[in-house]
Fold this sequence. Notes:
The structure holds two protein chains of two kinds.
Chain A: E1 15-27, E2 30-36, E3 39-41, E4 45-49, H1 56-63, E5 71-76, E6 79-80, H2 85-89, E7 92-95, H3 107-118, H4 123-131, H5 147-159, E8 165-169, H6 177-194, E9 197-202, H7 205-208, E10 214-219, E11 222-228, H8 229-233, E12 238-244, H9 247-256, E13 261-264, E14 267-271, H10 275-287, E15 292-299, H11 302-312
Parallel strand pairs in A: 4-9, 4-10, 7-8, 8-9
Antiparallel strand pairs in A: 1-2, 1-3, 1-5, 5-6, 10-11, 12-14, 12-15, 13-14
Chain B: H1 2-15, H2 21-42, H3 47-52, H4 56-90, H5 94-98, H6 104-140, H7 152-179, H8 184-199, H9 213-222, H10 234-254
Helix pairs in contact in B: 1-6, 2-4, 2-6, 4-6, 4-7, 4-8, 4-9, 6-7, 7-8, 7-9, 7-10
Amino acid sequence: MASATDSAGDRPLTYAIETSGLTHHFSPADRVLDDISLRVPIGSIYGFLGPNGAGKTTTLRLVLGLLRQQHGGIEIFGMPLRRNRMEILRRVGSSIESPSIYAHLTARQNLSLWRIVFQCPATRIDEVLQLVGLAHTGSKRAGQFSLGMKQRLSIAVALLHDPSLLILDEPTNGLDPHGILEMRDLLIALNRDHGTTILVSSHLLSEIERLVTHVGIINRGRMLFQGAFAELSDKRKPSTIIDTSDNARALAIVTDAGFETRTESERLILAALPPPEIGRLNRLLVEAGVDVYQIASGGNDLEKIFLEMIGDSKW
Amino acid sequence: MVMTLLRCIRTEWLKLKRSFASWLVLGNGLFVPVLVFAARLRHPHNLAAINRAPKFWEGMWTSMWQSMAILMLPMFIILITSLVVQIEYRNNSWKQLHTSPQPLPVIFAAKLIVILTLLVELLVVFNAGSYLSAVVPGLLFGVQAPAGPIPYHLFLTRNLNFLIDALPMVALQYLLALHFKNFAVPLGVGMGLWLGAIGMVSWQYSYVIPYTYCTLDYFATSGRQVVPHSPTSIQTLAAAYFAFFTAAGLVLYMTRKERG
């Protein structure tokens, strides 16, 4: 578990990661991050979302000290990264971009290396191999693994020293649907049972929406949304969906009755209606000889909200 | 810090498992001894005369070290430094290494120490191979063993001198291998400097070129060629260049904008 106070021990620690005004450019004309204030609450599973090239990996590389800081500050566990790099890295596990594993070594040999660095007990190797489902790989070299297996091994390396904070960049890349589900369950279990704070990046909301407790959305180097996942869910606009035997005629009837209606995927979409209005609408359609197959409540799915958010963002 | 360094060296050593490093040590270290061994087997009738020579061991050293000092040692240094550093580039693992709780100077030093250890290994293998290639053919054909005692002290001193002579090459090749992701750069630059150095050995100021030191030292000790007079010993110059290239390599390594 991450400590509950900051490095001085006198202030309750709210965030595992807190950046302020983080700005970065690879060339003067190419600003890849603009005033990023990332706040990852202690004990959360934080989904860092954005399309490819949005600045997710650059942010994570800065947070891990893989890129030299240009502007802004980074605090991890309440400690400035610049001055406390070693102490911070002892408590952080990470897997950034493509898997970092030694292809000429076996999974066990790879983990043995890092076990020496992190000075963890030898039993941890079996534990993490079991955890990521690679216990059976024996003398097979990591270079002969599938991409999914390499990804798992990379995550095993990140988990080896039982870190308080886990930073995973697109961890489901290369995993099959079953592997994605397993990964999700694993991360949820780590968070629930060990209190591990997890920062996980992805370009697909659907992939992490059942995993995260908090979310940050970034596009073109700017943070567009940050908060509890529930806050993002609240942005769903409720609606009423109607499907009939003759949707074209139904559209005319409903519009004549004074309802604002549009069609989507050959179904009628109306604003959310109170139950009496739904009853009246149903009666109108049935009396006009249109068979009603379905009247359901719906809303924008989160993916759509996400896409609208990143589509609307401008510099 | 010392414990961190020792742990880091251990991990760097483990990374060489199943790599080409051991083959490189064996291949380079045994190449000349195997050739000499084969030549002696091919002409067994000469063995008795060779072994009876009053300065057999000094003669053997001179013939063995010619190829080693001028050819095999520089080649080995250029290849082994690239191999050790390329393990990180090839496996995309710099980022994992640099997000581990190990100070950058420790990582830098650990890799350099591993390279130097492999260099010492090469010399051990070469000396052992040389001894066997001198003794075993005689045993096989029932010829009397080489005359005179082995001049251990002389051989040890000369080995140590060659090790020091090679240090600037190690440090500069290490700097290049760390700085350039493309392995062709340190290989190409190293080969260019080495070939250029061979061509300039006779130049009166050749002692300013650190890649000439092994060759100059060989010529000086074997007496096969007059070498230009340097203001101080080759080993002192080599140690100074080594310190400079190592410091430069460390500064470049620590001030990199991107670490994986």
